[in-house]
Design a protein that fits this description.
Length: 685
């Protein structure tokens, strides 16, 4: 009996198990069928919940069109007749689109649902028949394209930026951008014509205009293939592209290839650029560049992610011909510019606008009436816009019409670090001599500070200085005859520092000292004639045709204190006289108050000379003779004031193997050697 009962129980359990399996299979089949039907119909009932969920998560209004179709198998694929993405607060909508088709991977959804930091939104594909986008960012950096999920702490994260698109194609649209942070306003028409090969106009076309840094510009971008507006790195294929931008006198042309327009994450091609000043271009791209005259540039431009590179550069600034290779890395907190600046010819006057001098396109104001030193305020904040480490290799540096020989070559290292600009390891050769040193501009203190430590030696003046057009009224020398107005080896050293926001302020606060000397020198009588025979007579110089007059010693040592320069030593020792230079000049008000007096070699009462005074301003110097000549006691007293400073200069003069001490002899005379009582020489008219 019990066995029979057990068998019945087992049979009932088997029947119930089969029934449960059938029910489960039926439920699964019904679920699959329901999902299949819903997938086929596009899940129309999910439109409302999807709008509410996205609006809550992204903290902005999300609205989908009535023609709504959603597919969920494998990835989220959405198509509708309209899409609106609002902006936080009362700002205009970020996006209004017609007939959007959107593909989103599930990884993006899981990233938004999870807690903790949210990765950038990744969208596999977004295609739009029509788009109207309004991008806005305020001066504090808050942008309407930053998505902030409700679960994110706004104090910890500024929000996610623009989504990353594997593919973003817009057939037609309008893009308006107002960026108060970089002072950009843009209004652009966007269109793509995919697959219209028969018409020969497939690709992307953007035409826009606006203002950047309060200056108008226009922009034109065209691709010969379908170019996405935005793409993830490595996910898109580069297509040919041309870009043109015009802003006033500035022109930009790019011809190459790219994978997207908004981020230019992968770019390579030829860049041509021209404009009134390099500084304006630097402001536009966040690179610190000097104010210059008109320039043109051509080179190979590439970009990988946030790293820009410019190679095979041909840069013409004024008459200068420069080049080099550069890399600009935006990945560090402070962008870094590295590379080498080279050039076959650099004209120093082409850089003068950087110090405030007037030049076409530089927008530098003229100095006030009666002044010659530029007054323009420097753009010191730009020193903090980036860091730089550049090697400088210039084959030829031309100093101006006063100089017959350039610096050939000039090498150095330019560094910009935390607002401190330094040119170090400076070394240049010219006229058998050398120039070297270091210059620093520190933009951190207020006002900014500058330091210069420069030295020069062995420069042959007869080779370095140009005789042409230096003395008005002089006939041009014979081509076969070397025209030497001044000869000798020039040496010296300057160690100076100051503060200020302009060239005038920096010079007006200058402290330090400088000294220079000429050894084995001569001076032409034509130089003396050029400044007048009365001056020659006053200084005890005999004028005889164009003979070269030996200059046994020429030395000057100047002390600078708050822009006032006073010669501690100013000596020119000739056969006829020892000329002493005293007085002062001011870089604050550009005034002159110098005195040139002569201590004759051959004493007689007739050789008591009237001192020559140089007064007035840099812009209008005045030369006049004192009415009364100085007595020997006065001249000797002035001379004795030069003894100790001159003695300190003499050891610095590099005489090489020579033992001739022209300055030693002049020093001995100044110490009080009794003057020669022979008859004085007569000045010949």
């Amino acid at each position: 009996m019990h066995r029979h009962t057990d068998c019945l129980s087992q049979k009932m359990m088997i029947k119930q198990g089969k029934k449960g399996t059938l029910l489960a299979l039926g439920f699964l089949a019904a679920t699959i069928a329901t999902v299949a039907v819903c997938e086929y119909q596009g899940w129309p009932f999910l439109k409302g919940p999807l709008e509410r969920t996205l609006s809550e998560k992204l903290q902005r209004r999300i609205a989908l069109g009535d023609q709504f179709t959603l597919h969920l198998l494998g990835a989220i694929r959405l198509s509708t007749n309209a899409l609106t993405i609002g902006s936080p607060g009362s700002a205009p909508d970020l996006l209004n689109a017609v007939n959007p088709r959107l593909d989103v991977p599930y990884s993006t959804v899981f990233g938004l649902v999870g807690s903790g930091p949210h990765p950038p939104i990744r969208i596999t594909s977004l295609e739009l028949d029509r788009m109207d986008a309004t991008l806005r960012r305020d001066a504090q950096g808050q942008a309407n394209w930053q998505f902030s999920p409700r679960s994110a702490k706004t104090t910890d994260s500024p929000g996610m930026g623009l989504p990353r698109f594997d593919k973003l194609v817009v057939k037609a649209g309008r893009l308006q951008m107002q960026d108060d942070l970089i002072k950009l306003n843009l209004d652009a028409q966007v269109s793509t014509t995919e697959g219209d090969q028969a018409q020969g106009n497939s690709g992307l076309l953007i035409n826009g205009k606006g203002q950047y840094l309060e200056k108008p510009f226009d922009l034109h971008i065209r691709s010969s293939g379908v170019l996405p507006l935005a793409a993830s790195p490595g996910s898109a294929v580069a297509v040919p592209i041309t870009m043109e931008a015009n802003a006033g006198q500035s022109r930009l042309r790019f011809n190459g290839q790219a994978v997207d327009v908004l981020t230019l994450s992968d770019l390579d091609g030829t860049l041509t650029l021209s404009g009134p000043s390099l500084a304006a271009v630097g402001d536009a791209v966040g690179v610190t560049l000097p104010t210059t005259t008109l320039f043109s540039l051509k080179g190979q431009l590439s970009k990988k992610g946030d790293v820009w590179a410019l190679k095979k550069t041909q840069l013409n600034v004024g008459t200068s011909q420069l080049g080099g290779s550069f890399t600009f890395d935006r990945r560090p907190k402070v962008p870094l510019l590295t590379g080498e600046l080279s050039g076959s010819r650099f004209v120093l006057s082409d850089l003068a606008p950087a110090f405030g001098a007037q030049a076409p396109g530089a927008n530098n104001p003229a100095p006030p009436d009666g002044r010659v030193v530029p007054q323009r305020t420097f753009d010191i904040p730009s020193l903090h816009a980036m860091n730089a480490d550049l090697t400088v290799r210039l084959k030829r540096v031309e100093l101006g019409s006063l100089f017959a020989r350039p610096l050939e070559p000039l090498d150095g290292q330019l560094k910009l670090q935390s607002g401190v600009l330094t040119i170090s390891d400076l070394l240049a050769s010219t006229a058998d001599g050398q120039v070297g040193g270091r210059v620093t501009l520190d933009g951190n203190p207020k006002p900014p500070a500058w330091d210069a430590d420069v030295h020069w030696k062995g420069i042959r003046l007869e080779q370095w200085l140009s005789p042409r057009n230096q003395f008005a009224g002089q006939e041009e020398p014979d081509k076969g005859k070397q025209n030497r107005y001044v000869t000798g080896q020039l040496g010296g050293h300057a160690k100076l520092h100051g503060q200020g926001n302009s060239a005038a302020q920096m010079l007006g606060t200058m402290d330090g000292d400088a000294q220079a000397w000429v050894q084995d020198g001569t001076v032409s009588h034509l130089v003396v004639e050029a400044i007048g025979l009365d001056v020659a007579q006053a200084l005890g110089v005999v004028v005889v045709g164009d003979d070269l007059m030996p200059m046994h010693c020429a030395a000057v040592r100047v002390k600078a204190q708050q822009g006032a320069l006073k010669p501690e030593v100013g000596v020119i020792d000739t056969d006829d006289s020892t000329i002493l230079i005293s007085g002062s000049l001011s870089l604050v008000d550009e005034s002159l108050d110098l005195v040139m007096s002569a201590k004759p070699k051959d004493f007689s009462p007739l050789t008591l000379r009237s001192p020559l005074k140089v007064q007035g301003t840099f812009a209008d110097p005045k030369f006049r003779l004192e009415a009364k000549p100085l007595g020997l006691k006065v001249i000797s007293a002035v001379a004795l004031g030069f003894v100790n400073p001159l003695a300190s200069i003499i050891p610095l003069i590099d005489l090489g193997d020579k033992t001739d001490g022209g300055c030693q002899q002049a020093l001995a005379k100044l110490k009080g050697d009794r003057p020669n009582t022979k008859a004085a020489k007569v000045v010949r008219p």
